[in-house]
Structures are given as C-alpha cells and as structure tokens.
Amino acid sequence: MTAPLHANRTRPYNRRDALRVAAGAGAAALLAACGGEAAAPTPTAAARTAAPATPAAAMPTVAPPIAAMSTMPTVAPTVAPTPQVAAMTAMTATGGTAGATSAPAMPTVVPRSSAAAGSLRLPDSGIRIPTDKIMLRMTDNATNKAPFFNAVFAAYQQKYPNVTIAHDSLPGAELGKVIPLGIQNENAPDLFSLPPNGIPGPQAVRQGWVRPLDDIMPNLAAVKAAYPPGSFFEGTNVFGGKTYTIPTDGNQGYDTYLFYNTDYMKRADVDPQTKPLTWDEYRVTAKKITQQGAGQYFGVMIEGNDPPRWQAIVRNLAQMAGAPGDDSINWKTGEYNYDSDAYLGVIELLLGLKADGSVFPGSLTLNANDARARVSMGAAGMILTGLYSIPFLKLQNPNFVYDVTSQPVPNGGMVTPVSYGPPAGQFWVYAKSKYPQVVGDILAYTSSKEGQAAQLRLYDSALPVRYPDVNAQGEFDPRMRRLFPLIESQNRLGPSPTVRNPDAATALQELRPPTPNFGTLVQGIYTGQVRDARAAMRDLKVKSDMELDRAIRAAQMKGAKVSRDDWKSPNWDPTKDYTQADYDALKR
Fold first, then answer.
1. 101-104 — which CB contacts under 8 Å span 24+ positions?
2. What is the pLDDT of residues 57-103, one digit of tens each?
3. In a designed cystine with 191, which of 138, 181, 223, 308 is the match (CB 3.0 to 4.6 A)?
4. pTM of the predicted model as reported, rounded to 2 decimal places
C-alpha cells in the first residue's frame, strides 16, 4: 500500500507533495459536487492544504482512496528496462509519489551542449536580444517533443550565452495545477501549454493571461502565408484579428489508437492488424492476456491519474459508435452528447474491464508518461493512446516490440468517423513575460519550415507537421506510415461555430466548463465515487447546455451577434468533411 503523504516523512515538503495534496482536495470536491460525502482531511493534510492559495482556475483531480492504491506487482518485462524505467519502478516500490514522477521539484535547466543542437542553425530573425542575463521558462505537457525543444534551446543558448532556458514537461493533470497557480501568483512560465481539459484558449485570452504574437514574432505573416489553408481561424488561434498561438502538428487523427505488445497478442492468438477489435473482442482479449500473465502482466493499462485521458477514451470510442462531435457536441442539434447511449456504453466497457480484473493494478495512480513507460516494460498488453507515444516508447525502451492499430470499434459493425476541428496551437506566451521578444524569436524558428523539418527529424517523424512539403520528405516510423490510410478513412473535419460565425468566439471566451468536468467525472465513475453513471452524465449534459446558453447571453450583452444556432449544422454528414460549401449553404 502506498504510504500516506504525511507518514514517515524524512525529506523536505516540496512541489510534488503540494500536487498530491491538491489531488486529494480534488477528490473531495468531486464527491461534494456529485452529492457524495468525502472523509475529513487529517489535521496535517488540512494544515498543508490551507497554506498555499488555491488557484481559481485549477481543475479538480480525483485521487483514489488509499485502500485502492494497490502495491505494484513485480513485472517481468519482455526486455531489460531502461535506467529511467528502473528508477521509476524503484521509486514506486519504495512508496514514492505515484502519478507525479514527471514533475521536477525545481525548473529543469536545458544544458548548453547537445549533440542534436550542433545540427541546428538558428537564423537571425532581426530581433535585438537584450544583453543582460535572461532566465526563460517553458512548461508544457509535450514530453515526447523534448528532444526537439531541448536541441533548439541548447542551440539558442549557444548563440546567446546570456540566455538560460528552463524547460519542464508535466503530465496534464499537474499542468492543470501549475499553470493556474503561476498565473495567480504572476510568475507563470514565459511560454506554456494550456492544461488539457482545463483552461480553454478563449478563456485565457479573455482573462488577459496570454498575449498575441503579432508584435513579437518577426516572421508571423510569412509563416501564416506558408501554412496550408485551414490553419488559422478566429476563435481558435486568432482572437480579435490577433494571432495568439500557432499550430505545428497535423490535427487529423485521434489520441486513442490501440498500442499493443506484439508478443502478448500472439500468445492470445489475436491479430488486430487483420481487422480492428470490437468492444467485446477488446474486453475478451484483455481478460485472456491477464489470465496468461498470471499476475505478472495485465490486459490493459489506463493513464488513470490524468482526467483528460478518461475524456479522450470515452469521447473517441463513443464517436465511432454513433455519437459524433469532436467537442462532445452533436453538431446537427447543437446539444452535448454526454448522456447518449454511446457514451454510457463506453463507460460500461471500462467498468467491465475493471470487473474482469483486466486493468493493471495501480493504474489510477499513473499519469500518461508513467503508464506508457510501464507498458514498454511489459506490465500490460494494451493501451489506448496517441501516435505521439511512438517516440516516447522508443526513448523509454528501444527494444520494446509493439504495434499500433485502430481503437476498438463498436460491436454492430457500423463505424462513424471521428470528427476533428480546426487546429488551435499548443504553446501560448504569458502576458506578463519579461522577455516576450526572446520568446517570439524562438517561435519564429520552431514554426518555420526549417524548424518544422528539424522537429520531424528529432521527433522521429511520429506525427506530421503543418507543412505538406516537409512531410513529403519525412522518414516516418513504419507503424505511423502504415496508419496513414486508416487515418484518412476514420477521420473527418467537422463543423466549427467560430468558422461559421467569428462572433461565436466571444461566447467561447465566456464559457466555463462545469465542475466536475467530463474527464474528472468519468474518473469518479470508474473509481466508484460516483455510483449512478447515467444520472451523473445526464446532469453533466444539462449543466453544459445551460452553461453554453449562459455564455451566449453574456456574449450578446457585449454586442456579439451570436446564437445557439451557430452550434447547429443540420446539413452535417459525419461521414464527410465539412467544407466551406457547407457553411455557405447555411446562409442561403
């Protein structure tokens, strides 16, 4: 059993401990919001919780009861684990902080020397960089892109010796605490990712937390002109005519592909490459792998400590089962899908996997990075994750033999494509950064064709970038290239309220997701803290629809010409891309 936070403390209280306390407080908030009862915190925990100011925008995170945190079983890896994985395993076995292993206690300064940095030539952008000593901080949840960014930062520090760059990559749940806290205390990182399933971009703009790039990025106009059509939209990455963030990755696809241990799947006599597993086949296969593992490995790994991952699994599988809409909204009706049979069916599937004993014990304590690392060690046969995991798995265990295929498909055989929306952007500039021109100078390179080509090379060509001609020259991982036809067949561009009516962006800036949010609620249903899934998801739908109506009214009071009709596209066919012609047809 994992030791309580306050037990046998022999080390100073640090940021990781603060994150664990915040997670426990999030569980209490979830139970209260859903009508349950939470146990009173211990005096020690309560005192610690009261010490720091609570960030206003921090999202709740469910922490499973201590009794549910099983001691991690000894795993017999298919190959020798890397030193990083071995260190992680040792930490968990000795009662270390599960689910927070990726959060360093102090900002991680990027070394000035890097073999990869030697291959990068950073052009002069024309910006005059200050000569005084500069400490620049970047915080994101793009662990898989660390080789690219660290090479860029090392090259930049070699070019400008007075600049020091600290780069931290955190799991989504921890990012959702660190960024709001930094904004509240007015010391947020200069460049950061917004927490997934946390702070929407329009809200960050409305609150004045981030700044536009127009006056700090010298080549912005050239970059936007070189990008393919459909890369910049009012309400997604452009607000009030100003560009706030730049998309760098291709946005087609989804983030719940089935990654599986090839050896375990062969032992189970299953070949997902021949045809995708149905939901029932996925559950049966998970149970068979678990039985064959005999306690040494399990059928399924879930990134259970990251609420956004629960959201992604339910939303993506449900879309294929007939509840389409990339923002959990049925674009035909303009209403949320949360209480649909498809959403509830995926939740039932997750509960079935749990009841079968097919889920790796301790999954609830693992963030996405830790869960993937354990899969690479042989702890589980399957995990639903994105193609961005390809370079991560290679880094963690280059000898790990696995493959990738479609996420599980509905039992009935009828598969609805997964919708995706216009690209937004991953990185935002803090409004109170002391060195916005330095950040703009770095972004000028990372978003250029030269920078994107370097990203593709250093990122092991795991995901396409925005420039088609750069992609054409990329040497993609064979598993990724093999999935290109699948991506084309399983994904369609969906409608967007802001593309249809830019004034809808004002409503999105007013929108505040209900508490608990979608991912946190599903997490609570899985843990048993929320017992009536149908009632809880119905309540989430009602609250979400009401909140959207409220946000629209608030936008109207500010002069925006927007209505709920902007969220309705009656001519939408989920099996086809939604094009400009479809938008034009609604105006007739």
1. 101/367, 101/369, 101/370, 102/143, 102/169, 102/170, 102/171, 102/174, 102/367, 102/369, 102/370, 103/15, 103/16, 103/19, 103/168, 103/170, 103/171, 103/174, 103/178, 104/168
2. 333 333 333 233 233 333 333 333 333 333 333 333 333 333 333 33
3. 138
4. 0.70
